[in-house]
Write a structure and sequence with these properties.
about 900 residues; alpha+beta; six-stranded mixed β-sheet; 26 helices; 37 strands
Length: about 900
């Protein structure tokens, strides 16, 4: 062999090898990553499921297509072919057959890949769990709809698509081989072609019948009714009948196709198709529409009552609203200074620092160097060494490589030197310095703690801004943190990441990340390790894409180390009768807590709630090595798990409507609630749920909760507040505290209006805004104390030319009293000055019944009656605009009553 040929072969072999390595590099790099985390079995479970299902799809489609295409390919042409086509066949010879089969193979790969994409559905199907709840229409366990039905539907749809593609190919081949010919508008077809095509069409109709059979279950997710979700009267009594009709029509069409094709009665075949389409329209659309319009709509409430009950029941189960305990509370406006003093734990943990201005403050005070950043501010609670239970706000100081000077963004700096962030800031939520700035429990670099919460390993290699791969233990030291004008350097001290010290791993990573420097850099060492998929959101999704994830992972200091806690959810959109949320899901459980070590990247999935969540039980069967039981979580971390904000927000939004359990009340939306609005930065917006460390009414100890207030629909007074508990054995328990409907309880918007109308407060805020400063209102906080509510709003001042918000005032409102002072204590003193050193503002009557003092009664009566009259007037105006004259009359009558009561109260001097 000539040297030139040898060189060509060698070059071709090298190029081919690199192409193959490029294709498999992603697979190998992912495998190494899963192995480094101890989740190799998770990787192989996903790969085996996807590729096994894909291989089955490839083989099945190839056999279907090959066996069917082979029939027209083998037939003799019925008549002499067109000379041009004949020449093509003669030129190609057997190559045409090979080309055809290669095309089938390529299409089979596509179809196999499509079927393989249902790998998770397949795993759920093979590991189905029961919910122990039967749907009220078909009597199937809910698990059938979540674990089995999606995969069955996928298989049916895949088979239908495979047969349609095969039919198209068969028709084309018969046309090429003259089994089907077209001449002057006339179609001629051979008997063999007729039989073959008729069989395929008949099988397709059978699959269509199977589709209608499966579609029956779809009525459980019907949106036909505008007042509830799920199967209603029309769906059960008309739409379901329509599906049964179409099942029999489809099977009859299959028989009809075989009959007409074998008997060569083509006109009747057209009749079969036309009849099928007409019946589909009538049975599936016209008939249910007529039933809805003439049977249901005139008496909708009575007809739909049992189906509304189903919707309420299953929605409350799906979102765990059925576990919310109701607690009636009746504020009597008797709160005094002694009550405030007795609940010092709540007062000392009121969140005066809004996370938005605090983040801006951290950027100015704690960033230290321009390349650091605080991507978020997290809220948690800690028991200090002195036993004090405090709510705190934590910012993680991450490395933001994009903030490095442009000329410093070299490959060495980005991949080997500036590899990690360092330390945190921690501040109590309620403490403000004389300058209006936060006081820090942990601050600066290296971290300095004033409360005994120590962070010994402060490097942050895994976080929310760690987006690119980095290499540790190279031939050059890493930057650790700044010390004055110098830099403290370090070497990574953990057995984490993936080995990149030898040539083959370096080649694989260079190909995967399209980075030649990973292969040729002189700074690589035999002990070098590469860390990738470091962004914690990317990381958890890479490991377990079948889970949903909270949008707010939070940082925790435990045992001298920094961790991330990530809440994960099991979710589905297939829970029968359950109202979907905005994203389409209609079932959610927080059954997994993920802990990520910010230094090593070690990621642990802690599972719990198996009793109430069949989905997590199924996942534990599929991935037995992925999940660790929550009982094995270290206590130092378990003390910091909290009820997830995303879950609480979903539940609280659904609860606006689904706190109503009476079908009639639900249908009329008589008791519809809204999450309360607030005025924030001169805009009216829906309140955000927030964490608070308070003592709940009737409880002895303070605890960490999440809460949100509600108002009646289109009204501003408060009707209830919902909370979820996070501490100890109470974790996950939810309570709704409901106010009496006949009494008026201030809502956040009413308090905001009173703040705006207070002459002293509004004058001061206006003055600041005119003096080159910008006034920012923080979140208006609703703070329960006993059965009463305090309203607290921090006021921040920021120079228009600066970026450092300062907390300058605190507004406190209770009853008809409102005050703005420099400190929370000062504002509380002003509001409760009249009750200082007094016993609780109540007296005992002769029959031992508690009677409010006259002062409290005076405050309450005038205040409530005035606002009640205003509310009645607003309702009347709304009904007038809607043209609802009956409700308008009722509202006017109530307004007259309110005015009469107000006049009487005024005459009595109350």
């Amino acid at each position: 062999m000539k040297p030139k040929n040898i060189l060509s072969i060698l070059i071709s072999a090298i190029v081919g090898l690199f192409v193959i390595l490029g294709i498999i590099s992603g697979f190998i790099v992912d495998l190494w990553w899963f192995i480094s985390l101890g989740y190799e079995s998770v990787f192989w479970t996903q790969i085996e499921a996807e590729y096994t299902l894909g291989a089955i799809g490839f083989v099945v489609f190839f056999l279907i297509a090959y066996l069917n295409i082979r029939v027209p390919l083998k037939m003799e042409a019925r008549q002499e072919l067109d000379p041009r086509i004949e020449k093509i066949f003669n030129d190609l010879g057997k190559f045409f057959n090979y080309l055809l089969y290669a095309g089938i193979a390529v299409l089979s790969l596509f179809m196999g890949g499509f079927l393989g994409s249902f790998w998770q559905d397949g795993l759920f199907y093979m590991n189905a769990e029961g919910f122990g709840i039967a749907d009220p229409i078909f009597g199937n366990d809910v698990g059938f709809y979540i674990f089995s039905l999606p995969f069955i539907e996928a298989l049916r749809g895949w088979l239908l698509g495979a047969l349609i593609l095969t039919l198209i190919g068969v028709v084309i081949m018969y046309a090429i081989r003259q089994g089907i010919s077209f001449s002057y508008g006339h179609i001629s077809i051979t008997a063999a072609a007729q039989r073959h095509i008729s069989i395929l069409v008949a099988v397709i109709f059978v699959l269509v019948a199977g589709g209608y059979w499966l579609d029956r279950f779809g009525i459980l997710y019907s949106t036909r009714s505008g007042s509830f979700y799920g199967a209603g009267y029309t769906d059960v009594n008309a739409q379901l009948l329509g599906y049964w009709i179409m099942i029999f029509v489809s099977l009859a069409a299959a028989v009809g196709v075989l009959y007409t094709m074998f008997r060569r009665k083509y006109k009747q075949l057209i009749g079969v198709f036309v009849g099928f389409v007409v019946l589909a329209i009538v049975a599936g659309g016209v008939y249910p529409t007529l039933i809805q319009k003439f049977i249901v709509d005139p008496t909708e409430q009575s007809k739909e009552r049992p189906y509304i009950e189903n919707n309420i029941k299953f929605t409350r189960i799906a979102y765990e609203l059925n576990r919310i305990a109701e607690k009636p509370i009746e504020p009597d406006y008797s709160l005094n200074y002694q009550d405030i003093s007795n609940d010092s734990a709540t007062i000392n943990n009121i969140m005066l620092w809004d996370y938005r201005p605090l983040r801006s403050t951290l950027d100015q005070l704690q960033v230290i160097r321009l390349y650091y950043d605080f991507p978020d501010v997290d809220i948690d609670r800690y028991t200090l060494p002195d036993g004090d239970y405090r709510q705190v706000m934590i910012g993680v100081r991450e490395m933001n490589q994009n903030k490095l000077p442009q000329n410093a963004q070299t490959w060495v700096n980005l991949n080997l030197v500036y590899t990690h962030g360092y330390g945190i800031s921690m501040s109590p939520v309620n403490v403000v310095t004389e300058e209006g700035l936060p006081e820090f429990f942990i601050q600066d670099i290296p971290p300095e703690s004033s409360v005994g919460i120590n962070l010994d390993r402060a490097g942050i290699y895994y976080g929310e801004l760690t987006n690119g791969p980095v290499v540790t233990n190279g031939a050059i030291e890493e930057f650790d943190y700044p010390v004055g004008d110098q830099n403290k350097m370090t070497t990574y001290d953990a057995d984490a990441g993936v080995d990149i010290g030898s040539i083959f791993p370096r080649l694989m990573f260079a190909m995967q990340f399209s980075d030649l420097n990973l292969l040729i850099s002189q700074y690589m060492a035999p002990e070098s390790r590469i860390h990738y998929y470091r962004n914690i959101t990317q990381r958890v999704n890479k490991i377990a894409p079948f889970l949903g994830y909270d949008e707010d992972p939070y940082a925790v200091v435990a045992d001298g180390k920094l961790y991330w806690i990530y809440d994960a959810y099991t979710m589905t959109d297939k829970f029968p009768y359950s109202m979907p949320y905005q994203s389409g899901l209609n079932y959610i459980r927080n059954s997994v807590k993920i802990v990520i070590d910010a230094y090593t990247g070690e990621t642990t999935y802690y599972a719990f709630n198996e009793k109430d969540d069949p989905i997590v039980r199924s996942l534990e069967r599929i991935y037995p090595e992925l999940f660790t039981h929550i009982s094995e979580m270290p206590e130092s971390l378990r003390d910091h798990i909290r009820y997830p904000q995303d879950l609480f927000d979903i539940q609280s939004n659904i609860f606006e409507t689904y706190h109503m359990t009476d079908p009639q009340v639900f249908y009329n939306k008589e008791d519809l609630w809204n999450i309360a609005n607030e005025k924030l930065r001169d805009n009216v917006t829906k309140m955000e749920s927030y964490y608070a460390l308070i003592r709940l009414p009737g409880e002895d100890e303070e605890e960490f909760i999440q809460m949100i207030p509600y108002t009646p629909n289109r009204r501003d007074n408060m009707i209830a507040w919902l909370c979820a508990r996070s501490d100890g054995e109470n974790y996950g328990k939810m309570l709704v505290y409901k106010f009496p409907k006949q009494d008026l309880t201030y809502g956040p918007m009413q308090i905001s209006a009173r703040i705006d109308q207070d002459p002293e407060i509004s004058q001061q805020l206006t003055l600041w805004n005119q003096q080159g400063s910008s006034v920012t209102r923080g979140n208006l906080l609703v703070i329960p104390i006993k059965e009463e509510l305090l309203y607290i709003q921090p006021i921040y001042l920021q120079a228009t030319s600066g970026k450092l918000p300062e907390l300058k005032r605190v507004i406190v409102s209770y009853g008809n009293s409102i005050a703005m002072e420099q400190t929370l204590d000062g504002a509380l003193n002003m509001v409760f000055a009249g009750t200082r050193n007094l016993e609780p503002a109540a007296t005992k009557s002769s029959d031992d019944e508690t009677v409010p003092t006259p002062a409290v009664e005076r405050t309450r009566s005038v205040l409530e009656l005035s606002l009640q009259a205003q509310e009645s007037y607003n309702r009347a105006q709304n009904y007038l605009k809607e043209g609802n004259w009956a409700k308008y009359g009722e509202a006017i009558e109530q307004l007259e009553t309110d005015i009469q009561d107000l006049v009487q109260a005024a005459k009595k001097g109350r």
